[in-house]
Write a structure and sequence with these properties.
Order of helices and strands of chain B: HEEEEEEEEEE
Number of domains of chain A: 1
Radius of gyration of chain A: 20 Å
Structural class of chain A: alpha+beta
Oligomer: heterodimer
Shape of chain B: globular
Helix content of chain A: 25-40%
CATH class of chain B: Mainly Beta
Largest sheet of chain B: 10 strands, mixed
Strand content of chain A: 25-35%
CATH superfamily of chain A: Glutaredoxin
CATH architecture of chain B: Sandwich
CATH architecture of chain A: 3-Layer(aba) Sandwich
CATH superfamily of chain B: PCu(A)C copper chaperone
Largest interface: A-B, 32 and 29 residues
Strand order of the largest sheet of chain A: 2-1-5-4-3-8-9
């Protein structure tokens, strides 16, 4: 074999290794198991979803923009996932437990076409989950508004592997295809 | 010879002047116009919705929207959504500017009009009429279509 051929084979091997590495996602130093109440009023434990990829984001149902936009985008992600959609569960953790009762969460999530559970709990329970994932929120009184208060909150979407570890974070602006690609990488990754 | 205007002609001039005056008023009222109005379909448990639109200012003066009213809801408020790093924040604002000969978009991730206390549950395709009040006292009609 000529030297040029060896070089081509070597480059191909390096490229293949590089491509393979993109599937081996790092485990991010955030997250962990938690317990909350689901939108049917039942006790929920994250550990019950082992074997599935899980998407987690924080929000509130009175949110006019970010939350419905994210839920609409995730509906599109589920459509694009095809059969893989069965292996993905979305958790919508409310940071407004006063207004977001399980019944409200269930009714409002019903407007979107995705396999999602609305989660709520006491403020202390929610604060613990927010801290675990490195998220943040703030209840802001708006006495001159009919809303009485608004909730500033993180818009990051956390993607967990079937072992419950956070492997990817998606920014709010991430397009559906980026999330689909990330989920497929998580589902294909060696644990 | 007296320089008089025959009575019939005076009436005609009065009419023309009236039309021009009314036209002038109409032109003044249309200095700011709203287009592409739409309302995000409220979620099942909610009686509130966000309204988006584009406001065009055809005048040489910067104008501000200072309030809004609608028969469709108890309250219409000016709000702004801002993103600070990864945190979304929604804040009521007192006024929203439209630069001279410019435009201001109300869209998801920016300004919007919040309608609180919707009197009836809208359906996709319904229209909601809103009146904006400007800082110079003029009003701007907005017609918005309900969609997902």
């Amino acid at each position: 074999m000529k030297p040029a051929c060896y070089l081509v084979v070597l480059l191909f091997a390096i490229c293949s290794l590089g491509c393979h590495r993109t599937v081996e996602l790092p485990v991010l130093p955030i997250g962990g198991d938690f317990k909350l109440t689901d939108h049917d009023g039942r006790a929920f434990e994250l550990s019950s979803l082992r074997g599935k990829a899980v998407l987690i984001f924080f929000g509130y149902t009175s949110c006019p923009d970010a939350c419905p936009t994210t839920l609409s985008k995730l509906s599109s992600v589920y459509r694009r996932l095809g059969d893989d959609a069965k292996r993905v569960k979305t958790l919508y953790v409310s940071v407004d437990p006063e207004r977001d009762t399980p019944a409200v969460l269930k009714a409002d999530l019903g407007s979107f076409q995705l396999d999602a559970l609305g989660l709520t709990g006491t403020k202390a329970e929610i604060d613990r989950v927010v801290a675990l994932y490195g998220a943040e929120y703030e209840i802001i009184p708006t006495p001159n508004s009919a809303a009485k208060y608004t909730v500033a909150h993180s818009t990051t979407l956390y993607a967990l592997d079937p072992a419950g570890r956070v492997r990817l974070e998606f920014r709010y602006e991430a397009p559906p295809d980026e999330i689909v690609k990330g989920l497929r990488a998580i589902l294909a990754a060696r644990t | 010879m007296r320089n008089t205007i025959p009575q019939g002609r005076a009436g005609l001039i009065f009419c023309i002047a009236g039309v021009l005056f009314a036209g002038g008023l109409a032109a003044q009222e249309a200095a700011v116009v709203a287009r592409d109005g739409w309302v995000r379909m409220p979620l099942p448990s909610k009686s509130e919705a966000a309204l988006y639109m584009v406001l065009e200012n055809h005048s040489a003066q910067r104008r501000f929207v200072v309030s809004a009213t609608t028969d469709a809801a108890a309250n219409a408020e000016l709000h702004e959504m801002t993103m600070e790093k990864t945190v979304m924040r929604m804040t009521p604002v007192a006024k929203i500017g439209i630069s001279a000969h410019g435009k201001t978009s109300f869209n998801p991730s920016g300004y919007h009009l919040m309608l609180f206390g919707l009197k009836t549950k809208p359906s996709i395709g319904d229209t909601i009429n809103v009146t904006l009040k400007l800082d110079d006292g003029n009003t701007v009609p907005v017609t918005a279509t309900v969609r997902k």
